[in-house]
Amino acid sequence: QAKAQGRKGYHFYQPELTEQARERLMLEALLRDAVLQKELFLEYQPQFDIASGELVGVEALVRWTRPAHGAVAPTRFIPLAEECGAIVEVGEWVLKEACATMARLIAAGEAPPKMAINISVRQLEHPGFAAAVGDTIRASGVPAHCIELEITESVIMKASAAIERLQELRAIGVQISIDDFGTGYSSLSYLRRLPVDKLKIDRSFIDDLDGGQDNGAIVRAIIGLARSLNLATVAEGVEHDFQLEFLRRERCDVVQGYLTGRPMRDGELGQLVRRLGVAANDERGGVPLTA
Ligand code: C2E
Ligand code: MG
Ligand code: MG
Ligand code: MG
């Protein structure tokens, strides 16, 4: 009787689980295909110097559109890709594509000063990673100092060879920024030893800046910490004027968010660079801090 109950339970729950597992396996398989089938593309989100209003760079963000299904959010497929290992292929494609775009924009005189590219832990763990990055950048003809790699704080904490790998990457000439900073519990002594150039303040702390009295405490603390370690600060996910004003007062260096520019395709980016370049030549003071 008990056994029958168990079986009944088993039969009751099994279909739901397989459904989920099947969808996952399917997405993973499709994702590997996506690279080959050219279903991935990149968008670029502008970053502006808060004090001068100048465009200082863009962040490449991967997009996946499944035929007959539509867009799959990166917050959904990147974690899957990391689990199944497909992130290595996806990551290689992203690096190549971002460098190719940068090379094309440089040739057209429409390039932003810098291209930031997200790197995941599976890539960083690979012993040959820095050499591969060097090869890809060299083959593209883009100067290494135009490339910046973003690595999330939690990843740096997880990867045992992180410091060594970051040193190798920096030796190539690329810059390194810590993404989603403030969410990964780095100890201050560890942070001091990390060969990095920038901290990107996680969006969640920017969201908390609702104009109230104490809500800026964490953002203020991160900016102060960065300053004392000689690191630049980038605020991500800035959507409102009051957030930007707070960041300006606290002397955060760079802003990235919907307020100043949404992620866009490379053609639109080229036009933006042209427009800002012309504006900057026309009247220096009138450079708009927006895309
Ligand atoms: P991230 O690196 O922290 O990227 C910033 C995310 O915030 C992007 O989401 C961007 O579209 C979004 N964002 C920018 N400004 C605003 C804003 O003002 N408000 C709000 N609400 N959101 C804003 P997206 O494109 O969905 O990417 C999510 C995450 O997926 C990224 O977070 C990154 O961790 C990962 N990702 C994206 N592209 C790649 C990639 O090529 N490789 C790897 N390994 N991860 C990637
Ligand atoms: Mg990022
Ligand atoms: Mg980020
Ligand atoms: Mg983030």
Explain what you see:
It is a single chain. By secondary structure, this protein is α/β, with parallel strands linked by helices. 52% of the residues lie in helices and 19% in strands. The chain has helices at 2-36, 74-84, 87-107, 121-125, 129-140, 153-158, 162-172, 188-193, 203-207, 217-228, 241-249, 266-282; strands spanning 40-49, 55-66, 70-72, 115-119, 147-152, 175-181, 198-201, 232-236, 254-256. It has an eight-stranded mixed β-barrel, surrounded by four helices. Helix 11 links the parallel strand 8 (232-236) and strand 9. Helix 1 (2-36) packs across helix 2 (74-84) and helix 5 runs parallel beside helix 7 (162-172). It is globular and about 50 Å long. The chain binds ligand C2E and magnesium ion (3 copies). Residues 179-180, 200, 236 line the site of one magnesium ion. One magnesium ion binds at residues 179-180, 200, 236.
What is the number of strand segments? 9
- Coarse shape: globular
Mean pLDDT: 88
Task: Return the structural class.
Answer: alpha/beta
H/E element sequence: HEEEHHEHHEHHEHEHHEHEH
